[in-house]
Amino acid sequence: ALIDSGSNKTVATSNFCKKVNLPITHQFVTLTSLGATTSGRRQVGRVGLQSIFNPEYQVEDVEFYVVDALPVDPSHIATQADVQAHRHLNGVNIVELPVREVDLLIGTDLSLSILPEEIRKGSHSSPSAVKCRWGWSLIGNSGGRADLAVYTAFASFGSLPQNSIDQKLSEMFKQDFPDLPSEKLGFSREE
What we know:
The protein is an alpha+beta fold and 191 residues long. 17% of the residues are buried. It is built from four helices and ten strands; from the N terminus they run ββαβββαβαββββα. Strand 7 and strand 8 form a beta hairpin.
């Protein structure tokens, strides 16, 4: 899993859902990222999560949205070799997975679980390490080559009940036509 403080919702890949055989439903969801907003029916699931770092820490019934893929290059996934290259990170232990891929992004909907318990500050040219309930993660420049691509780290998700689409359309109509017809009855021809 990747911790993303720029996402207000936990996100899983469709590959993750297939591997774990999770039941999926559909909801109307609005996704807002830097410069774009899309709305539509999206796959939604629920899962219980357990920390590999501390198996006693578990979060039950986590709702997540399903995406095709997460834009994470394997070189962006921290390893113990990245830690050992920096003296100020002595004692930091990164849990390394057998496959360097990310299928789950933990967002701020699990904010209590990603709050820092310990911080090892780096510099502009070295990473900082943050320990939370899920374990250690590295943040910042590791001194490697600069990225050739930039990925935005801000995503905001919101789900709407189907009947609220009518409400949203009504709000848009009211913005275009703010003068609502009067409820007051006028004079008839005879008056």
